[in-house]
Amino acid sequence: MQNTKLMLSSLTLVGLFALAGCSFPGVYKVDIQQGNVVTQDMIDQLRPGMTRSQVRFIMGSPLITDTFHANRWDYLYSIQPGGGPRQQERVSLVFNANDQLAGLAGDFLPGVSRDEAILGTQPATIEAPAQAPAVEEERPARGSLLEQIQRDVDAAESVPVPIPEPLETN
Asked: Domain 28-120 belongs to what topology?
């Protein structure tokens, strides 16, 4: 009888410790990421007029291709850092009738890594750089090589960048 009570008490105590371990403070909880990881470098590479295959090469396959909106690709990304609140962001790419990239919309900030902003390893706000005091430009000496280069640069005309032809897929 005494042996049974001791055994029952021991099993109850072990069971309580096992249950307490599931939510014990200080236990490491894994960051859960789901969806397409879209970086700022990927967004910066996108240009209007790119074909679907070029966009797929840069961004990867979209998470959602809507049946009712065939010209829109959606990239969803969610992260739940260490058991904290889940945060979700999306990027939508829109193509025109010629299957070329026409525009994009979504939750991203230029120059800020979303993972670092979400996880708190980098400030989420973008601070404006401090204004440098205005400095008068020094003019190069007359007849110098530097003046000749500057004159050539000033006389150069800008040329529009050609848009690549769509790739044929067979």
From this structure: Beta-lactamase Inhibitory Protein; Chain:B, domain 1 (3.30.1450)
